[in-house]
Amino acid sequence: MYKLGLSADPKEVAAIEARRNREKDRQSRFFNVRNRVMGIQVDVEALNNQVEEKKLREATEQSKDAAYGTKQVQYDLVAQMLEKEEAERARRLAKKIQDFREQKQQLKNRREFDPWDPDRLQREFPVYLNDSDTFYGPASMQCFFGEDLERATNLRMQQEQFRYSLEGQLQEQQQAKVDEKCADMLSDQLHLAINMQAAHLARLEESCRMAMMFANANANKAQAAEVAERQRLEHQRQQEANLMEIQNQITSDLLTENPQVAQNSTAPHRVLPYCWKGMTPEQRAAIRKDQETQCREKEAKHQAEQALDTEWESQTIHLAQAALELEEQERELCAEFRRGLGSFNQQLAKEQKAQQNYLNSIIYTNQPTAQYHLQFNTSSR
After folding, report:
1. Distance (Å, rounded) from C-alpha 89 to C-alpha 87?
2. pTM higher than 0.70 for the full model?
3. Contacts of 230 (CB under 8 A, 6+ apart)
4. Which of 35, 140, 290, 307 could hold 136 in an S-S bridge, CB 3.0 to 4.6 Å?
5. How crowded is the C-beta side of 37, counted as CA atoms within 13 Å?
6. Which of 55, 49, 361 is nearest to 224 (CA)?
7. Distance CA 76, CA 68 (A)
């Protein structure tokens, strides 16, 4: 999905514009013919500015890394605190569960049957048996259905057991309420610590952001001052170069009409383009002479081409006439062939007609009657 209609970041736009201005300034220095020399002697100031910008950028990055490291350390501390609180809470809960098991879930207080009791066989086969023991069934004639010799004791034991169960449930409910209150208190303390840590981190982040903004503002001011100073020096150098150019133009042979100025000392057959004043009359006469020669050659070439075109046209006409004569001869031969074919067909038609007349008048004169057909059918039966 493309992000359309979003405004650009002013800082990024300002940075791009500053880089573009620096690049234009550098190009104007490099492409200046009057001040350009071999090496980096002229661009020492720009190199120093680049070094300063690199140092400032490294310092800014180091401050960002330091702030990021501080945030990471703080986040790690908060995470360690949370882990410690969770581990301590789990330890306390496990300790409370273990204490409850040791105090409230002993073997003697269990209401359910424990299959892992080591005294189970001893209780199943006691040393002394009485009439109320359930070990004996109805067939032993020792215990009868509906008989309860220890009803009072059983009722008292049931009441004690019920009271103990109620006390255990009340204690469990009270302990659950205490645990819930402790958990809520720990949760509130944890949230309070997290909020305090978050506020501290926010203050640190704000201070880092303000420091970065202050550093960027100082860097922008320094860059603006450098750009203004560079522009002033460039304007001063431009003015000096213009004055020097005017002086050179006034005192040099550029504005004179001396043709010797354009001659090249190392190559006499060449001229200096920036000092050339025009051609001499002899050079112009030689060029006109060459042009006239070229015109005559072009006219002769044109006449030869016209003669060749005329010859081609005459040959084309002769070929067309020969083709017309051949077509006329072909038409005459076709007409003669059609006439001979027509006479031959007429002769064949006459012969076929004479033969048909012969057959009809001589061969097929005796036509069979109906009586003949009747006799023929009777004889065949």
Report:
1. 5
2. no
3. 25, 45
4. 140
5. 7
6. 49
7. 12
- pLDDT tens per residue, range 114-154: 556 666 655 554 443 455 555 555 555 555 556 566 677 77
- Of 18, 365, 40, give the one whose Cα is nearest residue 223: 18
Give how far the C-alpha of residue 165 lies from the chain's centroid of Cα atoms, to the nearest Å. 70
The reported pLDDT for the residue numbered 169 is 81
Please name the helix (run of DSSP H) or strand (run of DSSP E) that holds residue 312, with its range, or none: helix 281-358
Q: What is the pLDDT of residue 129?
A: 47
Coil, strand or helix at 263: strand
Low-confidence ranges of the chain (pLDDT < 70): 1-8, 33-43, 106-150, 252-257, 366-369, 372-373, 375-381
Residue 299's pLDDT is 92
Provide the token pair at 351: 């012969």
One-letter amino acid of 277: K
CA distance 275 to 260: 9
Task: Report the pLDDT value the prediction gives residue 290, as an integer from 0 to 100.
Answer: 92
Amino acid at 189: Q
In this structure, what token pair is assigned to residue 189?
């303390």
In this structure, are residues 35 and 237 in contact, taking their beta carbons and an 8 Å threshold? yes
Query: 223 φ, ψ to 5°?
Result: -65, -40
Which residue reads 């550093």 in tokens? 215
Instruction: Annotate 341-361 with b (16+ C-beta within 10 A) or e (fewer).
Output: eeeeeeeeeeeeeeeeeeeee
- Where on the phi/psi map is residue 114: left (φ > 0), alpha (ψ -120 to 50), or beta? beta
- Chain-centroid distance, C-alpha 292: 67
Amino acid at 124: E
Helix (H, G, I), strand (E, B) or coil at 271: strand
Please report how the helices 44-104 and 151-251 are oriented relative to each other, as an axis angle in degrees rounded to 10.
Answer: 180
Work out whether the CA dihedral 288, 294, 300, 306 comes out positive or negative.
negative
365, amino acid identity: T
Residue 77 tokens read as 């501390």
Say which residues have a Cβ less than 8 Å from residue 212's Cβ, sequence separation at least 6. Answer: 60, 63, 64
Report the run of H or E that residue 46 belongs to, with start and end. helix 44-104
Task: Locate 11 and state its tokens.
Answer: 């800082």
